[in-house]
Amino acid sequence: MKVTSSYITLRNLRFHATHGVMPQERMTGGDFVVTVRVGYDIKTAMQSDKVSDTLNYAELLALVKREMMQPSALLEHVAGRIGTSIFNEMAGVTSVDIELTKVNPPMGADCDGASVELHLVK
Q1: Pick from 55, 56, 54, 72: which is nearest to 15 by CA?
Q2: How many helices (DSSP H) and strands (DSSP E) are in the chain?
Q3: What is the DSSP string of 55-108?
Q4: Model pTM?
Q5: Is the pLDDT of residue 25 over 90?
Q6: Residue 109, pLDDT above cutoff 90
Q7: Predicted pLDDT at 110
Q8: Residue 14's pLDDT is what?
Q9: Over 90: is that where the pLDDT of 23 sits?
Q10: Whole-number Å distance between alpha carbons of 56 and 33
Q11: pLDDT score of 73
Q12: Contacts of 56-63 spanning 24+ positions with Cβ under 8 A
């Protein structure tokens, strides 16, 4: 069996954070959903069954949470910071896909949210 690609994914992480352009968004905050998919070679972990041979989910979550708790005007900026931090702080990462959604954007539309998506490679 040959592994051609492998990923670690944290799906639909929910946060209450203070991102936004409008003053009210910065004061009261809003709800956000983040999905992060990290390209990472898991072949060794498939055989060893050791957490030290893979990307630690808890560390990835802590990194995403840290960046989500730092206020920004734009979702693009937050998503870029998350991607940069993953590459800078987690060895062996080959790609990062991020979807960041503001659940109830203040734009007068009845929708499930406004999102940005990034596909980053090293």
Answers
A1: 72
A2: 4, 4
A3: --HHHHHHHHHHHHTS--S-HHHHHHHHHHHHHHHSTTEEEEEEEEEESS-SSS
A4: 0.93
A5: no
A6: no
A7: 87
A8: 98
A9: no
A10: 20
A11: 95
A12: 57/8, 57/10, 59/90, 60/8, 60/10, 60/36, 60/86, 60/90, 61/10, 61/13, 63/89, 63/90
Scan for tokens 């409008």, then name that residue.
22
Coil, strand or helix: which one is 46? Answer: helix
The contacts of residue 100 (CB under 8 Å, 6+ apart) are: 32, 33, 34, 75, 78, 79, 82, 115, 116, 117
Distance CA 75, CA 28 (A): 17
* Side chain identity, residue 103: V
pLDDT at 9: 98
Pairing of strands 7-17, 114-121: unpaired
Tokens of 13: 């992480």
Please give the structure tokens belonging to residue 12: 């639909």
Q: What does the alpha-carbon distance between residue 91 and residue 76 come to, in Å, rounded to a whole number?
A: 24
Instruction: Please determine, for residue 86, whether its predicted confidence score (pLDDT) is greater than 90.
Output: yes
